[in-house]
Amino acid sequence: MTPEPTASRTALLIRDAVPADAETLTLFAARVFYDTFAALSNPDDMQLYLAEAFSVQRQRSEIAAPECRFFLAEISDALVGYAKLRSGYVPKCVTHSRPIELNRMYVDPVWKGRGVGDRLMERCLEAARQAGFETMWLGVWDRNPRARRFYARWGFVEIGEHPFQFGTELQTDLVAVRRIE
Predict the structure, then answer these.
(1) What percentage of the chain carries pLDDT values higher than 70?
(2) Which of 45, 89, 120, 170 is 20 to 30 A away from residue 2, measured at CA?
(3) For 69-78, what is each residue's pLDDT tens digit?
(4) Maximal CA-CA distance, the chain
(5) How open is the CA angle 44-150-111, to the nearest 5 degrees?
(6) In 3D, which of 96, 103, 89, 15 has the Cα closest to residue 53?
(7) Rounded to two decimals, what is the model's pTM?
(8) What's the rounded mean pLDDT across residues 130-142?
(9) Residue 10 above 90 pLDDT?
(10) What is the mean pLDDT of the chain?
(11) How far apart are CA 141 and CA 48, in angstroms?
């Protein structure tokens, strides 16, 4: 029996996104978000959120924005994951020095548990450190135990909450932080 491919045994490339990646990123991000949360969400709110958060124009604009940095994880030129760092907004519960937000991190379900998320996290932490940030924070839905375990394994500690607008529903995400070393 052949072992499942992992990011360490496969040529995984982590690279910065460019505006020309907007369409591919939009399709991937919307699909993976839907696959992750559709079973737990109101269908109307899901469609509203997808339309707002994952338009090609919005992705292109965010990729070009100086406060955002996207990393794409590719295997054989296929997108298998991505992460987005964002500076600027910080919830009140994050009082740590020089914070940056890990705004999004998603991996194709086929590649979950195979090291893609770890490689993306390594790249995000390194980029944040190089940019002079000292703390990374993120919001994670309390109904996403797999993500919470992943972030805890990476040293994130849950310290509070902040609002997350999902369609017409105002949800509450847990806020977690870690030092960047």
Answers:
(1) 94
(2) 120
(3) 999 999 999 9
(4) 51
(5) 70
(6) 103
(7) 0.92
(8) 97
(9) no
(10) 94
(11) 18
pLDDT of amino acid 2: 40
Give the CATH class of 12-179. alpha beta
Express each pLDDT in 101-117 by its tens digit: 999 999 999 999 999 99
Q: Give me the count of residues in the chain.
A: 181
Q: Is 96 exposed, middle or buried (0-12, 13-18, 19+ CB in 10 A)?
A: middle
**Tokens, residue 144:** 């996403």
Dist. CA 166–CA 29, nearest whole Å = 15
Residue 93: HSE in the Cβ half-sphere, 13 Å Cα cutoff: 16
